[in-house]
Design goal:
Blueprint lengths: L4 E3 L8 H7 L4 E6 L7 H14 L4 E4 L1 E3 L2 E2 L11 H10 L1 H21 L4 E2 L22 H18 L4 E5 L14 E3 L3 H6 L3 H5 L6 E4 L2 E3 L11 H11 L5 E6 L11 H11 L3 E3 L4 H10 L8 H5 L12 H5 L5 H12 L15 H4 L3 H4 L9
Parallel strand pairs: 1-2, 1-12, 2-3, 3-6, 7-9, 8-10, 9-11, 11-12
Antiparallel strand pairs: 4-5
Helix pairs in contact: 3-4, 4-5, 4-13, 9-10
Length: 373
């Protein structure tokens, strides 16, 4: 049975304490961070070990591209989604095609190492938010909708379910909800007519949503992830969305108004979330798993839709990814378009450019805005 808690593990291999947490009845997911990653083979072994101790578990990661990428060394670099928006302004058809390839490439390499899903795409607008910025495709909701749809088509073609975040939109409020309370004072009509449009218009391609830890004060006095107004009245009833609802990390500052971790888990689940994330705090993770014992299990069929189509491991990332029919083409396209690097020699043989594998100078020195602990 898949439980209601998604949490994390300490390092690149499992400890006895990790195993005790993974085996708890209400732990239904593990999210990986950069500290869990050495190389592709190690990540695949870690994921296999996690499933050995708990077969009914989702394994996720934030592999958005740009600044937010947990899988780096040995993996193909991905541009920030804002680069696709810039390309769209110059050449819409090229950008839409590249968005598909970015989604396919990301999903193929994440699945190859045993991870079910990346929490992507970001559907927020690039407006005033400190934490969103170029994680967003664009400032125009219609452009976001077009690019995100193609990105999700690529993800699904590779065998990965999609997760739109941060509903109904984090782009219109400046404070970063990872480290501060974020309050958006706009009226519901304005939010629905602008920020929420990429979510509403891409619903056919969305398998899951992650609500923002933002208080939309003219709608409810609770952050969206704790709000029955947003999760039940709007998402479930008005939009008729029947996919998975993941809370954002309940360790974030924007979630602390709901009380201690036990209160936050209960508040998120009772409001309508299927799975509650508790990350980067081992004491809180154990408390959350214990507090969840009196909660019902989530809809098992709904959760199973997020399981990835994980391929057979063939000894290394390249050999494993070659089982995805479009991986080589997508990889070549993304590198050539956004990183200006060669991927093949004159004989057509693949060249593992060390600069590529080190993740390109325009990404490596940028601070990950989600690395808040």
């Amino acid at each position: 049975m898949y439980g209601v808690i998604m949490t994390d593990v300490g390092g690149s291999t499992l400890t006895a304490d990790d195993v005790s947490l993974i085996e708890q009845a209400q732990v239904g997911g593990i999210i990986l961070f950069a500290r869990n990653v050495v190389d592709a083979a190690q990540v695949r072994q870690l994921c296999d070990d996690i499933r050995y101790y708990n077969p009914d578990i989702l394994i996720g990661v934030d592999q958005e591209g740009g600044r937010v990428a947990r899988l780096r060394d040995g993996f193909t670099p991905l541009p920030a989604m804002g680069r696709l928006g810039e390309l769209f302004d110059q050449n819409p058809s090229e950008a839409l095609s590249c968005a598909y390839d970015c989604g396919y490439l990301m999903a193929a390499e994440v699945l190859a190492v045993g991870i079910d899903l990346s929490f992507a795409p970001v559907l927020d607008t690039n407006s005033v938010s400190e934490v969103i910025g170029d994680r967003s495709f664009h400032k125009d909701p219609q452009v976001i909708t077009a690019l995100a749809t193609q990105f999700m088509r690529g993800m699904r073609a590779a065998g990965m379910a999609t997760t739109g975040k941060h509903f109904p939109g984090h782009g219109g409020v400046a404070p970063d909800s990872h480290v501060a309370e974020a309050i958006d004072t706009r009226a519901l009509d304005e939010i629905m007519g602008h920020d929420m449009q990429p979510f509403a218009q891409t619903l056919p391609w969305l398998d899951a949503l992650m609500p923002a830890h933002v208080i939309f004060s003219q709608v409810d006095n609770k952050p969206a992830g704790f709000s029955k107004v947003w999760l039940k009245d709007i998402i479930r009833d008005q939009l008729q969305f029947d996919g998975v609802l993941f809370s954002d990390d309940l360790s974030m500052a924007g979630a602390q108004a709901a009380g201690d971790v036990s209160d936050r888990v209960h508040a998120a689940i009772h409001a309508g979330c299927d799975i509650a994330l508790v990350c980067n705090d081992r004491v809180a993770a154990h408390e959350a798993a214990e507090a969840a014992q009196d909660l019902p299990y989530p809809d098992q069929q709904r959760i199973k839709t997020m399981r990835g189509q994980i391929p057979e491991w063939r000894g290394d990332l390249t050999s494993t990814c070659q089982q995805f029919e479009h991986w080589q083409q997508a990889r070549h396209r993304v590198i050539q378009t956004f990183f200006n690097m060669q991927t093949a020699n004159s004989n057509g043989n693949q060249v593992q450019n060390s600069h590529t594998l080190d993740h390109s100078d325009d990404l490596s020195d940028l601070k990950d805005p989600t690395d808040y602990k």
